[in-house]
């Protein structure tokens, strides 16, 4: 029995996580529920949440170097025992039975020493917890971490300045050095994009560097695509006109998290690219028109993509927030891919368009656009949940290869490199 895996360290915690003593109010306790399941003679299973009148005995964990205590619910504590009986450290999965947690959640004795909490349960089971691990794995600890991570994001406008993400990362270093790879992840997470220079133009070289960063995701556009040489898909991205700032895949139930471009050939005029930092625009909107921000965080907007044999359709808010921490997580902004507006009642339509126009005006502000020319040899990795991208019309030949990375895959690697938790 013992602690098998601790990921996090002690960090500064918000005061609402703590209580100074055991005097939690009865009101708080009465909100706690006990799930009970019992079979009725009528052959139907009745699942009823009974408010229990006996309050659970929260366990107070005394924190080192702090006068406060961390109050933990006994059921949470038992559920988070990491002993070999309760947790499989090889598969990283729980072994415990959710239906037995309550009956096993009475604490007989507990003590603290050397950063560890020892608990003896009424059924004789013993648990040992690392206190820093307990802190960082609570709801409050998670919110605090996500707030810290959000505060590390650097948003920008079109002037861009000396944004470190513009400094070149060379192809050979990205290919052979893991620290460089980790730096690519850090830049994409922090600034919304990273670029790799001097990538050779052969298809195999494009694929090798793309897959070196993350596994390619397979969508209706295939795993790996090329624009400028064919018109395989009925999308404006495959044509040569002006493309206004947008995010991709608003019509998927989950938009692909990241977009990769590799320009391999350009011989013509126009075709300059631009980015808009959607998180910067969101900040501006929140400040200038909080009602619009709030509305666009809730109103559902459906997008669609149709081509022979396919019809994708999906809805969601333009500003999507993490349901736990409330941090802004994703922008779904593509005015071209909007489906018929069936998600807003006619009585609300005026409000909807008013707020949408306010945001569109901010997206189109010249000061927010960062323009550049995607030159042959450059690979750009772009956060499609944060950055909007667009392009000038062009004449001539412009070949762009690329792929998507799923959010899950890219975030998994970012977590592996310690960039996010
Ligand atoms: Fe696009
Ligand atoms: Zn255990």
TrEMBL record:
Domain spans labelled Gamma-butyrobetaine hydroxylase-like N-terminal: 67-134
Protein name: Trimethyllysine dioxygenase, mitochondrial
Reactions catalysed: N(6),N(6),N(6)-trimethyl-L-lysine + 2-oxoglutarate + O2 = (3S)-3-hydroxy-N(6),N(6),N(6)-trimethyl-L-lysine + succinate + CO2
Known cofactor(s): Fe(2+); L-ascorbate
Assigned EC number: 1.14.11.8
UniProt entry keywords in alphabetical sequence: Carnitine biosynthesis, Dioxygenase, Iron, Metal-binding, Oxidoreductase
Domain annotation TauD/TfdA-like: ranges: 177-404
InterPro entries reported in the protein's UniProt record: AlphaKG_dependent_hydroxylases, GBBH-like_N, GBBH-like_N_sf, TauD-like_sf, TauD/TfdA-like, Trimethyllysine_dOase
Gene Ontology terms, MF aspect: iron ion binding; trimethyllysine dioxygenase activity
GO cellular component terms listed in the entry, alphabetical order: mitochondrion
One Pfam family this sequence matches: TauD
Entry function: Converts trimethyllysine (TML) into hydroxytrimethyllysine (HTML).
Membership in a protein family: Belongs to the gamma-BBH/TMLD family.
């Amino acid at each position: 029995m013992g602690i098998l895996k601790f990921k996090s360290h002690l960090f500064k915690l918000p005061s609402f996580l703590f209580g100074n003593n055991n005097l939690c109010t009865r009101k708080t306790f009465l909100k706690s529920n006990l799930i009970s399941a019992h079979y009725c003679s009528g052959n139907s299973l009745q699942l009823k949440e009974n408010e229990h009148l006996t309050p659970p005995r929260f366990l107070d964990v005394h924190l080192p170097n702090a006068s406060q205590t961390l109050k933990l619910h006994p059921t949470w504590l038992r559920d988070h025992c990491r002993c070999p009986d309760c947790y499989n450290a090889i598969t990283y999965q729980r072994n415990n039975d959710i239906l037995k947690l309550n009956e096993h959640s009475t604490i007989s004795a507990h003590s603290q020493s050397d950063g560890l909490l020892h608990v003896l349960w009424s059924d004789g089971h013993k648990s040992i917890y690392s206190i820093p691990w307990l802190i960082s794995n609570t709801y409050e600890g998670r919110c605090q971490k996500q707030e810290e991570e959000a505060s590390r994001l650097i948003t920008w406008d079109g002037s861009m300045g000396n944004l470190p993400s513009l400094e070149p990362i060379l192809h050979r270093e990205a290919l052979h050095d893991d620290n460089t790879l980790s730096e690519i992840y850090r830049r994409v997470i922090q600034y919304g994009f990273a670029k790799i220079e001097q990538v050779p133009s052969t298809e195999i070289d494009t694929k090798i560097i793309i897959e070196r960063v993350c596994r390619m995701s397979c969508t209706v556009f295939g795993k790996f695509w090329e624009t400028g040489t064919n018109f395989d898909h009925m999308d404006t991205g495959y044509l040569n006109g002006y493309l206004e700032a947008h995010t991709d895949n608003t019509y998927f139930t989950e938009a692909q998290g990241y977009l990769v471009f590799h320009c391999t050939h350009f011989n013509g005029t126009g075709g300059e690219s631009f980015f808009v930092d959607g998180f910067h625009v969101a900040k501006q909107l929140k400040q200038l028109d909080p009602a619009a921000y709030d509305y666009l965080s809730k109103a559902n907007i459906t997008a669609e993509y149709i081509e022979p044999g396919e019809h994708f359709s999906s809805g969601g808010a333009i500003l999507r927030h993490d349901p736990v921490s409330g941090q802004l997580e994703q922008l779904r902004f593509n005015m071209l891919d909007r489906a018929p507006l069936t998600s807003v009642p006619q009585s609300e339509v005026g409000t909807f368009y008013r707020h949408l126009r306010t945001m569109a005006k901010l997206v189109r502000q010249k000061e927010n656009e960062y323009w550049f020319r995607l030159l042959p040899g450059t690979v750009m990795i772009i956060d499609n949940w944060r950055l909007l991208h667009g392009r000038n019309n062009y004449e001539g030949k412009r070949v762009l290869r690329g792929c998507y990375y799923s959010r899950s895959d890219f975030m998994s690697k970012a977590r592996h490199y310690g960039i996010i938790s």
